[in-house]
Specification:
alpha+beta; single chain; Trna Endonuclease, Chain: A, domain 1; two-stranded antiparallel sheet; 9 strands; 165 residues
Length: 165
């Protein structure tokens, strides 16, 4: 898929999953909308959702903050610029057959910041990796993996809807 198609597909799958979880979903049409892509609501609880799609097994989040900074400094600068109320929905299409559902994860800015800093054996990175084992160099044998707790489940959706921030 072209990047545009990845973005549109990711947003559509995310909207469908939130609807399956019993949420009303409002969509800002077109990829790369400012701050958030979806607004979800259930009862009087709502959240803004930023959807990020990937067909390569990772999500580049912090690259533009790296110049002149360590990885951890870049991650902190990126996090400081983000709206802390937004929930990220990461949608992974890599290594899928056309008829398979993408893998989906939900994460807060704090979740993302902690995981970005933990990857590469604590050195940090600008791109969150879904599941990658290093095969050479000083990280040989190390695996970066998104925590299972981030999986898009109805319980995970509920936990975000009931958070104050």
């Amino acid at each position: 898929m072209e990047p545009y198609h990845v973005s549109i597909s990711a947003e559509a799958f995310a909207a469908a999953q939130f609807a399956r979880a019993g949420c009303d979903v409002s969509v800002q049409y077109g990829a790369n909308q400012p701050e958030y892509d979806l607004l979800i609501k259930r009862g009087n609880q709502f959240k803004m959702i930023s959807v990020k799609g990937s067909q390569k097994g990772g999500w580049g989040l912090v690259q533009s903050y790296k110049k002149g900074r360590t990885y951890h400094q870049a991650i902190d600068a990126w996090a400081a610029d983000q709206n802390q109320l937004i929930v990220y929905c990461l949608v992974g299409f890599n290594e899928l057959e056309f008829n398979q559902m993408p893998r989906m994860y939900l994460a807060s800015i704090i979740d993302l910041t902690n995981e970005l800093k933990a990857q590469r054996r604590g050195e940090g990175t600008t791109s969150l990796t879904e599941n990658y084992t290093y095969t050479n160099g000083k990280l040989k044998g190390w695996t970066d993996r998104i925590p299972d707790a981030w999986l898009f489940t109805e319980e995970r959706v509920n936990s975000f809807l009931h958070r104050a921030a």
